[in-house]
Amino acid sequence: MSQQTDIQIESWIALQRDLGKAPNTVAAYERGVRDFAAFCCMKGIDLFAARKGTIAAYLHHLCARPPGGGRIGDEGRSLTRSTMMANASLRHRLTIIRLFYDHLMEEGMRSTNPVPRGRRGSIDGARHQATRGMVAVHRSLPWIPSEEQWRTVLDAARIEPIRNRLMLALAYDCALRREELCALETSDIDPAQRLITIRAETTKTKAGRVVPYSAVTGELLAVYLGERRALSRARGPLFLSTSPRNRTMPISKWTWSKVVRALGIRAGEPKLGTHTMRHLCLTDLARVGWDIHEIARFAGHRSVQTTLLYIHLSARDLSAKFAATAAELHQARLASIAEVSK
Predict the structure, then answer these.
(1) Where are the domains positioned within the chain?
(2) How far apart are CA 236 and CA 64, in angstroms?
(3) Are strands 126-127 and 122-123 parallel, antiparallel or unpaired?
(4) What local confidence, expressed as pLDDT, does residue 333 receive?
(5) Which runs of consecutive H residues, i.e. helices, occur in 174-314?
(6) Cβ count near 228 (within 10 Å)
């Protein structure tokens, strides 16, 4: 990697920090752009002269790597379903590269961006020809556990420490993202009103909100606070580690992911993830008749369009709704199909 390339990457990363981007976001940007720079170096391509073909070759290279990582130089793998990088991960890598080339254009080092932008048919009311980006958007439905599957998860959770059970309950009760859950502090809890304040700096949208939690979760909280006081009486992060190596240190989002992963495997539900509780909560709110705008506020979404992506009623829910509201109308409209021609 040339010195000029390294200087420009450092300059762009420093700019992201100065703009107040989240540390995890900055770290992801740096990993992504340095990986692309290493690919260009391996192929003998000048990073500042890369064209669309270079981006396409990099996408092919990413698809040939194992999903869990891999290094530059890992070639020769067949592009099977098991080895291809996830669609969202590919698009995220493209976004990072596009933003880096936007920076180079602003610095006068390039006149064009080699990463084309996809766009819809209309933007801000103006009509445009719809164009597809280099990677098509796949909207896969998230896994929502059935009642039986959820009971299995809860049964498996009974042997978990009180801290993990409380985290599971709060993740569902308040539809919390993984980062929001792990960033909770003792001062964010109002036990008298059973309310939790989600601070703006911990959210994805940088917008704070206040959400309630159930009486069952309140009982778990009361027990856990007693255990936490035995660990530390200092105010601060709510969830603390009990391991000898990290005792009283805040629980990281990676630790919580491992806890949920282990719980899912033990329950025989390997699809269980840290976002499953959030999806299930928002879907349950839709099931009991909450308005879409109310659900969006509860979830902390800027747009109801985002909320619609999160809410997925099961086929059984839709069948019951269909039977209760539209079955007779549809039967009347299709009645002639069943008639025998004379």
Answers:
(1) 3-117, 147-319
(2) 44
(3) antiparallel
(4) 57
(5) 178-182, 215-231, 253-266, 276-287, 292-299, 304-310
(6) 22
Domain 3-117: top CATH class: mainly alpha
Contact 176, 189 (CB under 8 A): no
CA distance 318 to 334: 20
Contacts of residue 254, Cβ cutoff 8 Å, sequence gap at least 6: none
Q: What is the pLDDT of residue 336?
A: 55
Q: Which CATH number fits domain 147-319: 1.10.443.10, 2.40.50.180, 3.30.70.1290, 3.20.20.370?
A: 1.10.443.10
The answer to whether residues 109 and 90 touch, using CB atoms and an 8 Å cutoff, is no
122 is written with which tokens? Answer: 């209309």
Residue 214 to residue 212: CA distance in whole angstroms = 7
Whether the full predicted model's pTM is greater than 0.85, yes or no, is no
Give the pLDDT confidence score for residue 99 in this predicted structure.
94
How far out from the chain centre does Cα 244 lie? 31
- Whole-number Å distance between alpha carbons of 37 and 44: 10
* Helix (H), strand (E) at residue 328: helix 327-333
pLDDT of residue 334: 62
Residues of the chain where predicted confidence (pLDDT) is lower than 70? 1, 65-84, 118-140, 309-310, 312-342
